[in-house]
Design a protein that fits this description.
heterodimer; A: 283 residues; 0% strand; B: alpha+beta; Double Stranded RNA Binding Domain; seven-stranded antiparallel sheet; 9 helices; binds protoporphyrin IX containing FE
Amino acid sequence: MNSGLTNLETSMFYLTIMAYFLSMIFYWVWFGFKQQVIGQFATLLAIVGLAGNTTAVVLRTIIAGRPPLSNGYEFILTFCWGIVAVYLFAEFRYRIKPLGAFVAPLPFLLLAYIVMKMGPEERVAQAIPPALKSQWLTFHVITAILSYGAFAVSFGLGMMYLLKSHYGGGASGKASSRIPDLEVLDELAYKMVGFAFPFLTLCIITGAIWANYAWGTYWSWDPKETWSLITWIIYAGYLHARLMYGWKGKRAAWMAVFGFVAVLFTFFGVNYFLPGLHSYAQI
Amino acid sequence: MTEKSDKQGKLWELFSSMKLGLALLGIIAFVAAIGTFFPQISQEPDKARAVGQVWQALGFTHLYSTVWFRLSLGLLSLNLIVCSVQRFSGIYRRTFKPLPPESAAGVPRKIRAEIEAAVPVLRQAVERVMPAMGYRLTTADKEEMWTFVGMRHRWGNWGSVVTHLSFVVLLVGALLGSALGFRGYFMAAAGEVVPIQQIQIEKGKVSEDFSVRINSAEDRFLPNGERDNWYTDLSILESGKEVGRQTISVNHPFTYRGITFYQASFANGARFTADIKGQKIPVMLQDQGGNYFQAPGTDLYLIVAAMQGGSGQAAVMFQVYKGQGSQPVQTGQLTVGERADVQGQYQLTFDGSTAFTGLQVKRDPGVWVIWLGSALLLVGLMLSFYWSPRIVSGVLEMRSAGQGKLILGLATGKSGGSRHADFDALVGTLKERLTSEMATEEELQ
Ligand code: HEM
C-alpha cells in the first residue's frame, strides 16, 4: 500500500509540474494576444496544478507520518504551493491576471530544478534526525512558506512595474497596456510585503524557539539564520523608505525584486555556498 | 541657546533621525553578510583557526562578537529609544486626544464625501452610525458648525513604537544572557555522576553546586527501524541526595534551578575494569576513540577503536598508545568477560557495552526577555500592518432653513490610500440611514 501511495505521490508531482508549465505558457500567450479563453485556461491550469501540489503534499505527509518539511524536495514542493496559493488569491481578489505571466515561471522553475538536480534517493521520504522532531519546526516552515509565497508575488509585481515603466504605455506597449496602472502595481506590491513581513518575523521567531529547545541557543549566527535576518532587514528597509521618504514606484519595485533575490539566496545559496547548522536540509 | 545645549540638541537630532537608523541597519546587514563567508569560531573553530592571521586579528572569524558589531547594535537601540521618546507624545495625542477639524479646510481632501439634509438628522446619523461601525467620536460645537473626528483601530498608532522598542528588549535579553548565563557541555556514561562545576564550559561561569547522575542513556528506534530519539534518564543530586529526576530527549530539555539540560549527542561505549596492582578502577570508553583512559602512574593511553554486537555478545577492539606516539603500541580484541594484559602494567577486563550521552548545559536568564521581545515585536507588527488606524473627520455646516451640509473625509496614511472600501461603507450606511429616516418622517406627516 505504501508503494502505491508513493507512486501516486510521484504521479501528482509530475501532474503538478505539467500543469504549472502549461499554465505559464497560457499566461504568456494570453498576455501577448489577450484571448479571454486562453486566460481562463491559464487560471484553470494553475488551479489544477495547485490541486496536484496539495495532493502531493498531503500524500507525503501520510507516507512520512510527519509534516513534509524536512528535506529540500519537500520544502520546494511546499514553497511552490505557497507561491501559487498566494498568487491565485491575489488574482481573484485583485483581478490582476497579467501577474500570472510573471509569477507562474517561479513554481515551474523550482520544480524543474527538482527534476534536473535531484536524484530519486533525494526525493523519497527520509528518516529525520531527532533534532527535526519538533512542532515548532512545523510552524517555522509554514510561516516561511506563507511569507516566501507573498514575497514571490511582490517580486512578480515589481518586475511588472519595471517592465511597464520601462516600455511605458506607448504604442509599442500593447502587452504592457494590459498591465494595470503603475500605481495599482505599486500599492499591491506594498500590500504583499506588508502581509509577508510579519510572517517572516514569525518564521524567524519560531525558528529561534525551536533552536532553543533543540540546542539551547535561540540564535547562533549560522549562515541561514543570518541570511534570513538580512532578508528581514532588506524588507524593513523597503517599508521604512516607503513610509518616510515616500519611496514608491521604481525604487520600491527594485527593492521588491532585490528582496526576493535575498529570499532565494537564503533558501538555495546558503545550502550551496555556505556551511552551517541547516546544512542537513541538503537541497 | 548655550553652546552645550546646542550640541546636545544636535546629538539628539542625529539620534532621532531615521536616516541614521537605516544606515545602521544597512551596516549591520552588510557586516552580518560578510560573516557568513568566513568560518566563525563559534561554529567551526577548526576552519576558523585556519584562516589567515590578519583576518583573524581583524575579527573576521568572530564578527558577531566584535566590539564594532556590538557597538552598531547598541547605537541602533539608542536610535530606536530616542526616536520612540520623541514621537511618544505625538502618538499619545493622536490616539487619545484627537482634535476635530477647525473648518471644512481641515477635512482630508483626497477621499471625501458630501451629504446634504436637515441639520439634526445629519448630526444624529453621524452620532449613531459612526460608533456603531467602531469609530470612536470626538466632537466640537463651533459657530455655525459642528465638527467631529472618528477613529477606528486607534491602537494601531502604537505599532511602530512597540515594534521599535521590542528590538531594544531583544537586545537587553541577549545582553542578560551573555552577562549572567553560561553554556557548557559534558559527555558521560550511564552510571556516572558529574559535578556541575566540572563540566566543560564554553562561555560564562557556573556558580551552582550540584551533581548530575546519568541513570541510563538509550538510542531508541521505532518499529520501522528509524531512529526515534536519544533518551537520557538523569537525576539531580544535592549533597548526594536526589532532588529531581527526568528523562530528556532531543527537543525535550529539562530545567533545574534555572539550568537547562539539552540532549545533544549520543555514543556507544564499553565498560572495563582496570586492575593496577590489585587496585580495581572502573573505566568507560566511547566507541571510536571518543575519549581515552590514562592509567595512573603510566604514560599509556587506552582507547576503544571499534565495537560490535549487542549487549550479550559484544566485542571491542582496543588500542594502547604510549606518550606522544602516533602509532599504537598494542592492539587487541576482547569479548565480554575476557581479560588482557596491557604492557605489563595492568590487567584490563571488558565488562560489557554501555552508552554515553552528550548533554548541552545552559543557564540563560535572558531567554524570557527574548520571548517577551519577540511577542512585542509580533504585536507591534500586527498593529502596524493589520490594524492601521482609520480616521474620518468632518464638519457639519449649517445653512439656511435648518438645512446642513456634511463634509467628511478619510485621512490616508503615509503608505497611501487603500482603505476606500471602509470609507465607502461608512458613507453608504450614513446615506441609507438618512433615507430611511426621511421615509419615516414622511410617513409620520
Ligand atoms: C533604528 C532605526 C529605525 C528608525 C529610526 C525607525 C523609525 C521609524 C519611523 C520614524 C517610522 C514611521 C512611523 C510612522 O510614521 O508612524 C517607522 C515605522 C516603522 N518601523 Fe521603524 N525605525 C527603525 C528601525 C526599525 C526596525 C529595526 C524595524 C523592525 C522591523 C522597524 C519597523 C517599523 C515598522 C513596522 C514601521 C511601520 C509603522 C507604521 O506603519 O505605522 N523599524 N520607523
